[in-house]
Amino acid sequence: MTNTGRYTSGPIVLANLAASIDSLELRRAEGAAFDNLVALSKLLFIRGDVLGRMADNERAELIATEAIASSPDAATGFYIRARLAGRFHRFEEASVHLDQAFAAGYPRNKIDAEKAALLQATGRYDAALLLRDRLVQDDPGIHTLGALASLLAEMDRWATAEATYAAAIDADDGVSPLPCSQLLFEWGVSAMRSGDLDRADAIFAELEAILPGHVPGRGHRAEVALGRGQLQLALMLVTPLLETSDDPEYRATYAEILAAHGNAKATREAERAASAYEVLLARRPEAYADHAAAFFIGIGNRPQRAVELALANRKLRDTPRSRNLLAKALRNAASLAGAGSTHVSNLMSLRGTGHRFGHPQGATR
Which whole-number Å values give the CA distances from 105 to 75, 78, 113, 130, in the listed order? Predict the structure, then answer.
């Protein structure tokens, strides 16, 4: 699939990323200019995506907002606001800011890339496809082809999506494993959503060979192992993430694995994940409604809370996944109300929702 030898060592890249962030943080403390603030925000988002660090994403947003105050022009400020709003699933706000950025003269190709992501995130696939196709024609690189592949996968055009993912890998002309690793993550998530767990596992294995420290890839591979009944492997994959990531998704997966083992600690771990989700929902209800709803349908075992969150997510975006999530939440709540029983389910059809903290609009969690 990929030539792993062509990329710089993953640990070296992550060490360099940390060093660059530290250097830019020092410049910020000394009064960094706009370009340095934007660069620092970008690198923090990348590290947050790759290492599953919510705290990095929070800090990245803070610094990006700080950069807006020193933006060289209004168009750039509107564009940064749009990207931040889109990243955290405030889709209507993002659309307004994109229109403002375009009216103020921001480059059309960058506006179109963000618009395509918003259209995809909100289920307007045909309109998104027009933009994605045009962007690929203008610049057939790993990012444009990868975004097109992600859209095709969401449109259930899996064979074409697979070919496009492969073309995106072939188009990568850099030596950093970061773009390729994020693309492989999206590819693996798409395979999970299509129900092909063997394919997903092979893709996540490729990702781990390129960038062993990619936390979401390892976490999703644990979900795949759980779905295939490989409980010891799933446990081995997810356990280290509980210490390195502050994303409750991995603790939720851990709780599911413990429940599958019949371990009584599963309830306690699920409660810890539930508390963490509620903290995130209080801060960013739009960004976490889908993941939290899936959690509360299953091991979180709060059916009415799941319905509330699935409804909120459905109002944000009309996609097959949002409709499916709501239908499952409603069925689960009705079933439990009628049976008066508890329920623990495997969430393979609900989880693995590539959160474009890689790209919430279509890419990354």
Answer: 6, 10, 15, 22
